[in-house]
Amino acid sequence: MYDEALRLEPQNTYVLLQLARARIMADPLQLDEASRNVNTVIELENFNGNAWKLKGDIHSMKNDYEAAEEALVKATGMLQGHARFEAQQSLDSVRRRNSESLTTTQSSNQSRPTELLSPISPARTPATLPNTVTTALPAPLSVSPQSQSQVQSQTSSTVPGS
């Protein structure tokens, strides 16, 4: 049906968007084909908010949240009424999923270095390792009460208004 309509009017943006919507609901999903249809609409009508909304939805379905956010921001700037509300809801959802995926990625990256290290068993502590050099730490500095009072008196005399 859509193919016949596009054969008669290949630049019919309404039909291209309807075809793209059908493709994202198909089983199996036809996201690449839907994306091509939406991009054609955007080339023909750059200010078509519905096309930008659908482009954002397709990127979101592909887990490309940055591209989805970019498209949905454009859509919310172009659409009005309920369509704008729906685009804003999609944008909020994409931003939430993007921050969740970044948090998950960061936490998995932070755990990787420890996974790569081999654990030291209790039998292989530094005391039992051969040729281990033990370094003594310097003793902590002690400050007498007399030197503390000298520092305080010098500090208070250099502070203006004291």
Describe it for me?
With 162 residues, the protein is mainly α. It has a domain of 113 residues: Serine Threonine Protein Phosphatase 5, Tetratricopeptide repeat, CATH 1.25.40. The protein contains seven helices and no strands. α2 packs parallel to α4 and α3 packs antiparallel against α4. The longest helix is centred in the middle third of the chain and has 36 residues. The protein is globular and about 55 Å long. The N and C termini lie far apart (89 Å).
Q: What is the radius of gyration?
A: 32 Å
Portion in beta strands: under 5%
* Amino- and carboxy-terminal Cα gap: 89 Å
How many strand segments? 0
The shape is: globular
Given helix and strand content, the structural type is mainly alpha
Helix content range? 55-70%
Order of helices and strands: HHHHHHH
CATH-level-4 superfamily name of the domain at 2-114: Tetratricopeptide repeat domain
Fold-level CATH name of the domain at 2-114 = Serine Threonine Protein Phosphatase 5, Tetratricopeptide repeat
- What is the CATH class name of the domain at 2-114? Mainly Alpha
